[in-house]
């Protein structure tokens, strides 16, 4: 049964069941509906119960609301919910509020239904998704069917409901046929408002959507299954009341959630899904919740731009894969963090299980922000002009959401706040420095010196801020334990992690030049741009100074902490082989453009 026929049969049966039900709207009678949803109803029930209206949404919606106040059950069709904006005063200020304002004496059993969201080539004024608008209004109930069973059951339930119900349909789904059960064909079949439905069971991630996006989530789940990722697909069906229990139960099962909607990202339905996941399941989350949404633009008319402005199946797949990869990276980081730092905090390794979720969550958010900013740095303009001297904006929306979570739990201490501020500073400096280096990819043997556009002090500042994530995790560990930070230990760890990051930069030097078009900060790259062929000598001098400072700070620590650090050094040397503790400088690259051309963007 097609969704069109499901909606038509639902109205037919409800009109036959209850003489107070009638339909009104533009072209619903003689033309049998703009999308033929009301086909045949005029011939069966006559013009008194299937009424064509003028093109005046405010007027006929007001008539419908008045009829509902008087005891009838109108079904008001909007040719598109974009036109409901003309009637929003009647919907929000009259239909939604009179039950409350009359202390329950006045009910408004009315249905507002029609096409919502994008269709195909109908542009900005006919393509908007109004789910978040109406779902935010007290007094309204809002549903969004996906398949034919949803369409029949939700519409019949909406007609029988004593409150105003907004039924958000999708034009493209009208012609799609879905299997339908015998039970759903029964005249008394309804889908309870406020109940979601699991369309596909899974164990690794929950994909939450409504309307057309449910189908996209099902297709994405099939593709993810081929890559070994089991996705559970949850069809919301009802946006208000929303099924918090179903969302929470699924997220507790899979430990990850991605919300998918056509609407705009800010203040959308996805924001509510994320809020539910964090409020109800924070300790069960293995990764920060993600949203896949429409673009923050009015809908374009051109087909290619329209496609770019809407969520696509590949967006869902890439978001899930990125989430899984980010979590895997975060877990590896936390495993190393636990082995290295728990003993320094005097914690047994088994305490890892007390703090696992919050540490992985925070590191996962930091990884994502780091990846976003590296991509932005890699895609920045490499052309000349004064714009290269400006500090490009950083992408930290995820950090702000995380900070709200930490603040709510009393974990956003001054130490954590300071390290997150260092992270923002690092990303800002990374993007600026990478942009400047891309402007001068060919380095003379003596280096650019002052012509680089940045100083050695600025490069060292960025290098010092780079390891903020480990320092943030240490500060967070103090907050979780409720103890005062150890200033001497934190200062040692600052220098120690700085040396580790410099070592990583030496190992990754060539990759950081090639990957992402040179969008990754690397301290040796900075030294090469400043000093040319002499960069290794200058950097080696800096490393020597830091090693001396590290040794001095180590000797200040208590003997047990000193012993742990030295054991870790020996273990690292054993894992990496003889000579692992010696610094190895790669050959400097003076022409980054030629190097990328020779070895490819992936460094292969």
Derived structural class: alpha/beta
Helix percentage: 40-55%
If you compute it from the alpha carbons, what radius of gyration comes out, rounded to the nearest whole angstrom?
Answer: 30 Å
Number of domains: 3
Main sheet: strands, sense, barrel? 7 strands, mixed
* Overall number of strands: 12
Number of helices: 23
Distance between the termini: 53 Å
Oligomeric state of the chains in view: single chain
Uncertain spans, ≥5 residues at pLDDT below 50? Answer: 381-392, 577-581
Order of strands across the biggest sheet? 2-1-3-4-6-5-10
Organism: Chlorella sorokiniana (Freshwater green alga)
Subcellular location: Mitochondrion
Domain Transketolase-like pyrimidine-binding: 1-176
GO molecular function, one term: metal ion binding
Question: Which properties best describe this structure?
Answer:
single chain, about 600 residues, Rossmann fold, 7-stranded mixed sheet, 5-stranded mixed sheet, 12 strands, elongated
């Amino acid at each position: 049964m097609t969704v069109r026929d499901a909606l038509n049969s639902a109205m037919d049966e409800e009109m036959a069941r209850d003489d107070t039900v009638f339909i009104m709207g533009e072209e619903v009678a003689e033309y049998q509906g703009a999308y033929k949803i009301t086909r045949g109803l005029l011939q069966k029930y006559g013009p008194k119960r299937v009424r064509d209206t003028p093109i005046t949404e405010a007027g006929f919606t007001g008539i419908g609301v008045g009829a509902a106040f008087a005891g009838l059950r109108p079904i008001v069709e909007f040719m598109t919910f974009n036109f409901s904006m003309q009637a929003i005063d009647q919907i929000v200020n009259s239909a939604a509020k009179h039950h409350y304002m009359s202390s329950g004496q006045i009910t408004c059993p009315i249905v507002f239904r029609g096409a919502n969201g994008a269709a195909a080539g109908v542009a900005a004024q006919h393509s908007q998704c109004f789910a978040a608008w109406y779902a935010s209004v007290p007094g309204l109930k809002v549903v969004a069917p996906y398949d034919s069973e949803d369409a029949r059951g939700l519409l019949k339930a909406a007609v029988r409901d004593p409150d105003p119900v907004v039924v958000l349909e999708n034009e493209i789904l009208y012609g799609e046929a879905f299997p339908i059960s015998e039970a759903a064909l029964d005249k008394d079949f309804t889908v309870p408002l406020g109940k979601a439905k699991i369309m596909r069971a899974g164990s690794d991630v929950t994909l939450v959507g409504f309307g057309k996006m449910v189908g996209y989530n099902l297709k994405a789940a099939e593709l993810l299954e081929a890559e070994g990722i089991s996705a559970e697909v949850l069809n919301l069906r009802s946006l208000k009341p929303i099924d918090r229990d179903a969302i929470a139960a699924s997220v507790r099962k899979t430990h990850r959630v991605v919300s998918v909607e056509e609407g705009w990202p800010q203040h959308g339905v996805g924001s509510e899904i994320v809020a539910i996941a964090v409020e109800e399941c924070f300790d069960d989350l293995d990764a920060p919740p993600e949203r896949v949404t429409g673009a923050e633009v009015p809908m374009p008319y051109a087909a290619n731009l329209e496609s770019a402005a809407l969520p696509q199946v590949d967006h869902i797949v890439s978001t899930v894969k990125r989430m899984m990869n980010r979590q895997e990276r975060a877990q590896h980081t936390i495993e190393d963090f636990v082995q290295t730092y728990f003993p320094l905090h005097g914690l047994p390794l088994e305490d890892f299980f007390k703090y696992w979720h919050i540490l992985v969550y925070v590191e996962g958010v930091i990884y994502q922000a780091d990846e976003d900013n590296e991509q932005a740095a890699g895609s920045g303009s490499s052309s000349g002009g004064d714009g290269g001297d400006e500090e490009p904006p950083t992408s930290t929306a995820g950090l702000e959401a995380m900070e709200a979570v930490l603040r709510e739990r009393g974990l956003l201490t001054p130490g954590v706040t300071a390290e997150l501020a260092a992270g923002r500073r690092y990303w800002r400096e990374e993007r600026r420095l990478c942009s400047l280096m891309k402007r001068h990819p060919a380095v003379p043997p003596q280096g650019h010196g002052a012509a680089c556009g940045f100083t050695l002090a600025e490069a060292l500042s960025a290098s010092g801020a780079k390891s903020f994530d480990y320092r943030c995790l240490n500060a967070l560990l103090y907050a979780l334990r409720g103890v005062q930070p150890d200033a001497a230990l934190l200062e040692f760890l600052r220098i120690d992690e700085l040396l580790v990051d410099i070592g990583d930069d030496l190992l990754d030097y060539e990759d950081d030049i090639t990957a992402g078009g040179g969008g990754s900060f690397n301290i040796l790259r900075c030294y090469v741009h400043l000093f040319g062929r002499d960069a290794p000598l200058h950097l080696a001098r800096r490393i020597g100074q830091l090693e001396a400072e590290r040794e001095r700070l180590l000797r200040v620590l208590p003997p047990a902490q000193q012993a742990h650090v030295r054991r870790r050094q020996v273990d690292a040397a054993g894992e990496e082989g003889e000579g692992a503790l010696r610094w190895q400088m790669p050959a400097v690259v003076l022409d980054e453009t030629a190097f990328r051309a020779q070895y490819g963007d992936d460094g292969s």
